[in-house]
Design goal:
Structural class: mainly alpha
Number of helices: 7
Largest sheet: 3 strands, antiparallel
Strand order of the largest sheet: 2-1-3
Order of helices and strands: HHHHHEEEHH
Distance between the termini: 67 Å
Shape: globular
Number of strands: 3
Radius of gyration: 25 Å
């Protein structure tokens, strides 16, 4: 009986080792033969699911073709054309990456940089267009406690955001960092510069000249109008999707 039991245990142990070996070998072989992963995202997942644009890679239409008293139809159309070019640049970079040579002397590193820059350019434009309101909007009552908790008085936040918008070369943003559970004003001098790792954009302002030069001679006039036209319901939806309300 004891000999039989030992033999049975030995057989089961050997079978387990052999099976594990086959699994490991099979996985390794599969990894070698696998093609590069699809990096365009899934249309059924993500914070922007169900919205045209970034998820999946398509050109999102302008939410508003004109914003009377703020941005003209011609200004928005010209700006949207910049966004379309960013989408196409992102799609081209990801297509090139699917068959790129990964050798150190190849173009792989440059393609990765182009991918990040175009991805930021695409997403920031989509967030910008969607957080613009048709009419002047005051900070709603339900958001005031959150603003006060994270940034102090609204006027204090607006003054600091304006300073960021005047200092930045391309983007100013109010972001939520889930790591410290705080809101922060931030600037980006380029689509690949000034990234706050892990932060979620709540308010995005494009301060590049293509965003306002047809209407405003001075950036400060454009920024002042922008602060009056923030779609706070959209901002609240963004915050709710990544934290709590």
């Amino acid at each position: 009986m004891q000999t039989t039991e030992l033999t049975r245990r030995s057989f089961i142990g050997a079978l387990a080792i052999a099976t594990a070996g086959m699994t490991i070998h099979g996985s390794a072989g599969g990894a070698e033969d696998a093609s590069p992963p699809n990096e365009t995202g899934l249309s059924s997942e993500g914070l922007l699911v169900g919205k045209p644009g970034f998820q999946p890679r398509t050109v999102a239409p302008l939410p508003h073709e004109e914003l009377p008293g703020f941005l003209s139809r011609a200004q928005l159309a010209e700006h949207h054309a910049e966004y379309v070019r960013a989408v196409e640049a992102l799609k081209a970079a990801e297509q090139a990456l699917s068959s790129a040579d990964r050798s150190p002397r190849g173009a792989y590193a440059q393609l990765r940089r182009k991918q990040v820059s175009a991805a930021n350019d695409t997403l920031l434009h989509e967030l910008y267009f969607r957080n613009l309101a048709v009419e002047k909007v005051d900070l709603p009552k339900y958001l005031r406690p959150h603003m006060r908790e994270h940034m102090g008085a609204f006027e204090s936040w607006a003054a600091d955001f304006t300073a960021c918008a005047m200092a930045a070369k391309q983007w100013a943003a109010l972001v939520y960092d889930p790591y410290d559970d705080r809101w922060h004003n931030a600037i980006m001098d380029g689509d690949g510069d000034g990234i706050w790792i892990g932060a979620n954009p709540l308010v995005v302002c494009d301060v590049s000249m293509h965003a306002y030069a047809k209407i405003y001679e001075r950036r400060e006039d454009y920024v002042a109008k922008f602060l009056e036209r923030i779609a706070w319901d959209e901002v609240a939806a963004r915050y709710k999707s990544v934290d709590r309300m």
